[in-house]
Amino acid sequence: MKKIIVPIDFSIYSEYALEAAAILAKQHQGEVLALHMLELSEAVFTKGGFQQNEEAVFYLKLAEKKFKSFLNREYLQGIKVTPIVKHFKVFSEVSDVAEDHSADLIVMGSHGSSGITEIFVGSNTEKVVRHSKIPVLVLKDEIKTVGFKNVLFATDFATDSIEVFKRAVAQFEALHAKVNLVYVNTPSRFITSKEMREKVATFLIEAEGHTNRMADTSFVSNYSVEAGILNQAAEINADLIAVATHGRKGITHFLEGSISEDIANHAVLPVMTFKI
User: Count of domains in the chain?
Assistant: First the structure.
């Protein structure tokens, strides 16, 4: 985790993320890339030449001044912090910045969303999770340590999840964290206990060459995958939920939804998502 991106909107939630990123950066001798989306309105860009440029520069300077003040935090002392200001609020652009700077992780604070807002708009965090090619750590509250020691990793144990599973496990074991696995059986995709165990065993053998992690795998039944994961996290007193995401977009996302985005939105615990 040498380069960590933190999207900043000046809210208390982005401050939570900034402090967590600072802790990670100190632990790994890394740096923080503080990213602010300027959110210039379309009206600014429909004005003529000089007036457009003058107004855009005014808002840019205003944002830079506010940004500099926001980054004046004691916990950032001794850490290389690179401020980045983008003109628009396009959430796929966070992923582009991450790629341009070879970042390893995005840390975001989130208040979540629910009801009609979630269905038609979705939270900013959801949109970043959907587009990001690198892991995203989502926080709902202030944390004084990111030394996660008891991680619940949720997967459907499908073949296309093997590589992300291996990356996630390597990352957590480097942090000396215990990795617990969970398989959630639901009425809509019900399989027997025997079938569940066979599926997990096949996955683990292909991923690691053995089934040692079966001892740390829980098989739970619930009406939804999300509820099963959240309940199991509480059951084992996890300090982080990790989940793989397909990053569905467009009509597929609207019809099928995304378990990873729902968990990032609704979980009280920190959540880390990994793109398949």
Answer: 2
